[in-house]
UniProtKB/TrEMBL annotation:
One of its GO terms (molecular function) is protein methyltransferase activity. Pathway: Cofactor biosynthesis; adenosylcobalamin biosynthesis. It comes from Lachnoanaerobaculum umeaense. The lineage of its organism: Bacteria, Bacillati, Bacillota, Clostridia, Lachnospirales. Residues 4-198 form the Tetrapyrrole methylase domain. This is Precorrin-6y C5,15-methyltransferase (Decarboxylating) subunit CbiE.
Length: 410
């Protein structure tokens, strides 16, 4: 049995290499890894043949070329936290099951000390309360994660990444939150600094860093059916709170949903969508220039980073709609049938919710429901009549809102 060892070496200081990881490297003839990782262990294992490589496919080729040897592929930190080891393990496992080149090979895994566990231990932070993000080579949504978690750990993208995050925190109004910045962790020039966002903007920061943002007032609850008064509205119609709550329940939005709000009006439904699909994306389509301005203001006020506003009259602006899984149509501009023809070409079988208050739109919905059933969709239509109390002198009278018809197609 030939061993392929996937080894987490920790943060880089060889003194933090676990005994098991040390033995795995010691017993290997071939060592493969990124330059910084290889350089950190070379002195202690001088008799090995080293390959500098981090690309998964190229590592596989090196392993194939050296298949008669015991091999160690080394990774920074822990192999289970934002590690290339995960993809490599999957590719190796598939190749071993194929029983061709990698016949009689065994994958062994050796965890290391991660920057997360190290920084939490150094700062007495309860790791079980930490939300983990990475801005290393990708974008994450900051506002929701920080607003809803007591601690948020972020692996950043170099020094500029820290400052970009700090500027966003200030933009969101998180001026006073404590940030713990860890630089060059485990090395002789290690530095751990606790300050608020503004303090880091003028600071010289190492590219090798990570951070923990503390929010003691975090609120994990996410509700929908927000009060109408929290939105900037002007004279643009708004989907009322109670109706909006029912629309959201019908859509059944997941955290990573790709959503469309067509005929977005003042953006109230888009905002509700963005709060639920906080790891997903929301496209708000609106043709009215005044409404577009209001949506922009509401996006800013709610720090809704995952909304993309598209100023267009549908079906223009629906370029990505076949990738959507949750679609709300609150205004169609007379193009409801053509929009639905486009949506029905999707292979994702999205959940579609359509609201209507005019008889003409209701008639169109009836036709659409028939077509949807023929295509294998389930359908339902709900009529909602909401009345709210209003003070009239010493009395409270129930004032009826427009009846709304809501069609769900899924």
């Amino acid at each position: 049995m030939r061993n392929i060892n996937l080894v987490g070496i920790g943060l880089g200081n060889p003194n933090l290499l676990t005994k098991a990881a040390y033995k795995a490297i010691e017993s290997s003839n071939i060592i493969i890894g990124a330059r910084r990782i290889v350089e950190s262990i070379k002195e202690d294992f001088a008799d090995k043949l080293y390959y500098i490589e981090y690309n998964t496919e190229k590592i596989l080729e090196i392993i194939k070329e050296n298949i008669g040897n015991e091999i160690a592929v080394v990774f920074s930190g822990d192999i289970s936290l934002f590690s290339g080891s995960i993809k490599l393990f999957e590719r190796l496992n598939a190749a071993i099951e194929d029983k061709k080149v990698f016949k009689d090979c065994k994958i062994n895994t050796f965890p290391g000390i991660s920057s997360l566990s190290y920084l939490c231990a150094k700062t007495n932070t309860d790791i079980s309360k930490v939300k983990i993000l990475s801005f290393h080579g990708k974008e994450e949504l900051l506002y929701h994660n920080i607003d809803s978690n007591e601690y948020t750990f972020i692996i950043t993208s170099k020094a500029d990444g820290v400052k970009k995050i700090c500027r966003k925190l200030i933009e969101f109004g998180f001026f006073e939150l404590d940030i713990i910045l860890g630089e060059n962790l485990s090395y002789d020039n290690e530095r751990i600094t606790k300050a608020n966002a503004s303090k880091f903007l003028d600071m010289e920061i190492s590219d090798l860093n990570c951070m923990i943002i503390s929010n003691p007032d975090a609120d994990k609850s996410i509700s929908f059916g927000l009060s109408d008064e929290v939105f900037v509205r002007d004279k643009v119609p708004i989907t009322k709170s109670e109706v909006r709550a029912i629309i959201m329940s019908k859509l059944d939005i997941q955290t990573d949903s790709i959503c469309y709000d067509i005929g977005a009006g003042s953006g109230s439904v888009s905002i509700e969508m963005s709060r639920l699909a906080y790891d997903g994306k929301v496209y708000a389509i609106e043709k009215n220039p005044l409404a577009v301005e209001l949506i922009q203001k509401n996006i800013h006020n709610f720090s809704a980073e995952n909304i993309e506003l598209i100023h267009a009259k549908a079906p223009d602006g629906l370029d990505n709609i076949i990738n959507a899984d949750k679609i709300f149509i609150g205004g169609s501009g007379g193009e409801l049938i053509s929009m639905m023809e486009m949506i029905f070409t999707s292979k994702k079988n999205p959940t579609i919710v359509i609201s209507a208050i005019t008889m003409e739109t209701i008639a169109q919905i009836t036709d659409i429901v028939k077509i949807a059933k023929e295509k294998g969709y389930d359908t339902e239509i709900t009529a909602i009549n909401v009345s709210k109390s209003k003070e009239v002198g010493p009395y409270n009278m129930m004032m009826a809102q427009n009846m709304v018809f809501i069609a769900k197609i899924w």
